[in-house]
Amino acid sequence: MKWDLIKLQKELLQKYPDIDKLREKSRFHTEMMNGGLIIGCLAFAFIFILGDGETKLISFVSLVIYMIIVFQATSHRDDFKKFFDSIKHEYIAAMLKQIDSSFEYSSESLPLEDVQQTGLFDIKYTESLQGNDYFNGNYKGVKLQIGEISFESKDSKKGDNFFKPSTLIIAEFNKTINSETIIFDNEFYDNGGTKKDDSLQVISHYKNNSIALENPEFEAAFSTSSNDEIEARYLLSYSFMERLLNLKYQLDKCKINVAFSNNKVAILLYNKQIFEPSLSKSVKEDRIFIRFQKETVTILKIVDALRLNERIWK
Question: Is the separation of the CB atoms in 107 and 254 below 8 Å?
Fold first, then answer.
């Protein structure tokens, strides 16, 4: 498999020999933007501290104009990603086939109806669903749908902070679920159960009764709500809670929400993107498709980690 992926990389470089020049240009513009913003903010802070009222107002207006100029001058910072996204389809599809021949890849989003049915998101925000890198198949006997999702904010002030692009996994399993049970990562909320960041409003909040489970470590990391406490306790066995905790640590403590609904389990890996090219390394140095393959296998290990391919709920 490794040599096939290296061959895939060579094909990419042969077909698009200037791709690394484009990457370097985007990297340069990104570094220019970051450096420019830092210098501008430091200059503004210095003047704000030492200046009088009129000077502060002038410096603020100047900072706004300066930032607009910086953004305009570094407009090519996203060119590499946009170009790579436009050509990657056949390469990602081939890479996924090497992992499992059942996988079908699309640059489109997960179907809106499937995302809504997970119960993980506030329905009123889901109409703005955006996404890409969607693939599905039958992995180790489990029907899987995986894709990167985001939501567009109607509030322009929130911008990119509304909902960070994340990976959503939807898996079917062999058990009829009559209830809705959702596991919330406590890192999303403060001690009072309020979301720490208003930009996370798209993520579903407690809709049902809170369930206390007999696992202090799990309770410290997650909160659970369900409209059927008996079924929730049946689903969330002690061993399942331990596996979910281990999964969180394996994914570098990535924020994870899990929902059991409509005969499926959905897992949100918040702020975890897939199939993203690197700006800091050349395509050859990055060994891009080998990296993508490793990232995909890590995500697929969720099937093993949570034993989704075992009929543990029958």
Answer: no
